[in-house]
User: Which sequence fits this backbone?
């Protein structure tokens, strides 16, 4: 549970990277702005080189002996790293697991409805947990539940791949499906169609052109 801001006594996060005068060691291994190895130099010499080049002296490997430093524009470097992290988070796909529950003796109409839900989830790149619920004497015939799961998988016609085979757990039998190649294709096609610009009014043929 997040801590309310007014009660949060933790210190704010700060950048722990040591730069310039915060690097307090007698000698450092220096890397130039273009990546060239400049060897081990006195810290005063390294700071002077950074100042002459209008750059920062940044500690990039504090655990080394001596620490490894580099000449660079730290503000620009930090900004670029933050942008890369944002792009990585943006392209990181969050996978949701949906659950659909069926009965062994499900009616055909209900089966088609449930199958439609599964197809929709898979096309949205969600995983789907299919659960067969047994009651009473139905537990004596687990093969019916397994047959229903296999039928559903076959009816999906390439939209899914089985990630976890049917497994009996007490009164329930479950199978986990993940989006297959066909689901990825339909999802990409939907995105492409959504991005296509609509035909403008000026591009539509008038009645005379249509008649011609």
Assistant:
């Amino acid at each position: 549970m997040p801590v309310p801001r007014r009660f949060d006594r933790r210190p704010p996060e700060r950048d722990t990277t040591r730069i310039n005068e915060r690097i307090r060691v007698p000698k450092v291994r220096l890397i130039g702005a273009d990546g060239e190895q400049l060897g081990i130099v006195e810290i005063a010499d390294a700071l002077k080189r950074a100042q002459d080049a209008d750059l920062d002296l940044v500690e990039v490997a504090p655990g080394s002996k001596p620490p490894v430093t580099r000449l660079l524009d730290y503000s620009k470097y930090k900004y670029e790293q933050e942008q890369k992290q944002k792009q990585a988070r943006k392209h990181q796909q969050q996978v949701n697991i949906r659950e659909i529950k069926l009965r062994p003796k499900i009616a055909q109409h209900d089966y088609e409805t449930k199958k439609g839900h599964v197809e929709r989830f898979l096309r949205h790149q969600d995983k789907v947990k299919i659960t067969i619920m047994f009651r009473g004497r139905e537990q004596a015939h687990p093969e019916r539940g397994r047959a229903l799961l296999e039928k559903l998988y076959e009816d999906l016609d390439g939209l899914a791949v089985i990630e976890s085979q049917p497994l009996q757990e007490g009164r329930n039998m479950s199978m986990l499906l993940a989006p297959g190649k066909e689901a990825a294709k339909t999802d990409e096609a939907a995105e492409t169609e959504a991005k296509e610009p609509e035909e403008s009014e000026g591009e539509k043929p008038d009645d005379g052109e249509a008649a011609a």
